[in-house]
Amino acid sequence: MPITFQCKSCSAKFRVDEKMAGKKVRCPKCQTVGEIPAAEPELLLPDPEPELPLPDPEPEIDYQMKSNVDDDFWSQTAGAMPMPAAAPAPSTSTSSSGNSGRQGNGLSEKDARRRVVFPATVLCAFALLGIVLGGLGLVAMVLLLIGGANRLPPDQLITNLIVTVLVFAGSIGTYRGANALRNLRGSAGSVWFALIVGMTPFGTYVCCPLAIPFAIWGIALMCDKRIASRFRD
Fold it and tell me: Residue 121: what are its φ and ψ, rounded to 5°?
């Protein structure tokens, strides 16, 4: 049975054969000479209980949303979670909370609508009046042409009929363009048509002198890129 002894100088422990008991040996670590003590009976200790193996941890599964091309629904499939995309740096041009409703052009829809609503509404009213008067004139011309009870030459009657048709059609186009300007929605071409033709009798009929300042007002607003950019080309 091996004997375990401890060096008195460096406290190093060594194991030697029991046959070396009572002999002097030199410590291999500090070279100090010491005597090996006699073997002492070792206490019988109970065997330690065997350690039970720990259960294997459940594998961690990261779920990510995956869309199949042939399936309209989203399904969860196990796999590595993709790294999130880096968040864009906050814009310094619109840092205040009051500018949260503003677009990149710097003018919110509410502010733009407040600027155009008055001239556009007035042009809509004049255009509606032109539609009503032009429609009545068109009906009267058709009745005169069919009934033959007119005292005008046929060529003059046809000319008046053509002019009335143009006034009626132009008033409709003016109303549509002015309404698009009021709602900040629609084609920019229809808006420009309403602003230009609305200054003539073909757009607002007898109200064209009153419509001219409001049409010029609308043209000035459309020259502002912050407003014109809200309409499609």
Answer: -65, -40
User: How far apart (Å, rounded) are the C-alpha atoms in residues 122 and 174?
Assistant: 11
Helix locations, the chain, DSSP H = 109-147, 154-183, 188-197, 201-204, 208-222, 225-228
Nearest to 131 by CA among 174, 68, 88: 174
Query: Can you give the pLDDT at residue 130?
Result: 92
Q: Which of 39, 38, 32, 41 is nearest to 11 (CA)?
A: 32
Burial class (CB in 10 A: 0-12, 13-18, 19+), 85: exposed
pLDDT in tens, 119-152: 999 999 999 999 999 899 888 888 877 776 556 6
Question: Please, what's the largest Cα pairwise distance for the chain?
Answer: 156
Tell me the per-residue pLDDT of 180-215, one tens digit each, with 9 for 90 and over. 999 999 999 999 999 999 999 999 988 999 999 999
pLDDT in tens, 169-181: 999 999 999 999 9
Rounded to whole angstroms, the Cα distance separating 53 from 164 reads: 100
CA–CA dist 195, 213 (Å, integer): 10
CA distance 172 to 197: 11
203 Cβ contact list (under 8 Å, min separation 6): 127, 130, 170, 171, 173, 174, 194, 196, 197, 211
Q: Give the up-direction half-sphere exposure of residue 181: CA atoms within 13 A in the CB hemisphere.
A: 35
